[in-house]
Amino acid sequence: MDNKIDFVVLWVDGKDPKWVEEKLKYLPDNDESPENEIARFRDWENMKYWFRAVEKFAPWVNKIHFVTWGHVPSFLDVNNPKINIVKHDNIIEKKYLPTFNSCAIEVNINKIPGLQEKFVYFNDDTFLLRKVRKEDFFVNGLPCIEGLEEAISPVGDSSAFTHSLINNIDIINRNFNKHEQHRKYFNKFFNIKYGIQNIRNISLLIWKRYTGFKNSHLPTPFLKSTWDEVWEKEKKVLDETTSHKFRSYYDVNQYLFRQWQTASGQFHPQLAQGKGFEISDENIDKIQDTIEKQKYKMICLNDGNNISDFDELKSKIIRSFDKVLPEKSAYEK
Fold it and tell me: Where is the Stealth protein CR1 conserved region domain (predicted)?
């Protein structure tokens, strides 16, 4: 069995004047959508620590596929043999470009030339904090996932994200019978590793269809063949998402493929090995403490809206990362 595992990460330089100019050409007038607010695109300037962490904590990675509009961070050594720069036109049809929709990019990453069957998908706000093994992501050829369900609940922020989750579940319920899958893969959906969290799936048994899945916003293992299967069965939906230049209520996103792996039983049960934070004035001290003490194997630092001084918080996070990862990596010039 091929034991090679690739990493895939999406990145955008929201300050690139050429990118900004192109984005403004297509942005509707008077657009006030939360999908296009500054927090979606601004750069926390901590990407070099992502690469340092990969080198230190996951030196076994086969290849890093760096997916970008065309720009790359100034520090990045694009000649490093482990780095593959993937431009949007390498994976998305020209008629759909340019795109500023992360969902459109995500659903097409299985088209990356040379992508291994086993890969881990990162957003650019997800980082490794401690050593990880291949077995943290794949066991017996299957991705390690929490087979935990939940009820989707909009939070009232008018964002498209919850709508995408609902669209995902619509597709899952179209292709899978929840109770049949529970019977077939009982030990994966009701597993001792989940502990008290088994109550999630038990409490939702009264609903005969899936109401949603727990989605930890952390690096996620995938099988490329799963993405290929979803494209084969749901091409119309995925093409529709690809056609949207900005996030919309009609998109699906990368969680569809995770949920497909879960609903199909093609996963190894495992609890999430990290924690997600929304950066804010109130929790910046907790975030710094988490990074500096390396409390988890992985962390997500989601850009938030409750930030009074972006530059100050950015500097604090950079200082914390630099305490853990002070040495320049081979991925840097």
Answer: 4-30
Domain ranges of the chain: 5-324
- Residues with Cβ within 8 Å of 170's Cβ and at least 6 positions away in sequence, in order, are none
Asked whether the whole model's pTM tops 0.90, one would answer yes
Q: Which residue has the higher pLDDT, 318 or 31?
A: 318
Q: Is the pLDDT of residue 32 over 60?
A: no
Residue 37, classed as helix, strand or coil, is coil
Of 80, 115, 158, residue with least CA distance to 8: 115
Which pLDDT belongs to residue 296?
Answer: 97
The CA distance from 160 to 166, in Å, is 10
- DSSP code, position 218: S
Q: What is the DSSP annotation of 142-195?
A: EEEE---B------SS--SHHHHHHHHHHHHHHH--HHHHHHHTHHHHS-GGGG
Quickly list DSSP for 87-142: EHHHHS-GGG-S---HHHHHTTGGGSTT--SEEEEE-TTEEE-S---GGGTEETTE
Q: What share of the chain is helix, strand, coil (3-state, %, to 5)?
A: 40, 15, 45
DSSP 274: E
Q: Tell me what pLDDT residue 42 has.
A: 78
